Amino acid sequence: MPSVRRAAIVIASLGHYNGTQQEYRTATPYVGDARNDRASSVKLL
Fold first, then answer.
1. Burial of residue 19 (number of CB atoms within 10 Å: 0-12, 13-18, 19+)
2. How far apart are CA 37 and CA 45, in angstroms?
3. Distances in Å between the alpha carbon of 40 and those of 30, 35, 43?
4. What is the DSSP track for 7-18?
5. Sign of CA dihedral 7, 23, 15, 13
6. Could you read off the pLDDT of 16-43 as tens digits, one per residue?
7. Residues 6+ apart with CB under 8 A from 16
8. 11: exposed, middle or buried (C-beta count within 10 Å: 0-12, 13-18, 19+)?
9. Residue 29 has what pLDDT?
10. Largest CA distance in the chain
11. Cα(3)–Cα(23) distance, rounded to whole angstroms?
12. What global pTM score does this model have?
């Protein structure tokens, strides 16, 4: 049976995936005050 990869999302504080990054692999309804309204780039893995 093939392995199943779970999706992930990476949020970066600056454009072009620069700056502080945080990766999420589970449902996250609130990313906290430090991340809220500060994402400039998002990457789906």
1. middle
2. 21
3. 17, 10, 10
4. P-EEEESSGGG-
5. positive
6. 989 999 999 998 888 888 777 888 898 9
7. 41
8. buried
9. 87
10. 41
11. 21
12. 0.70
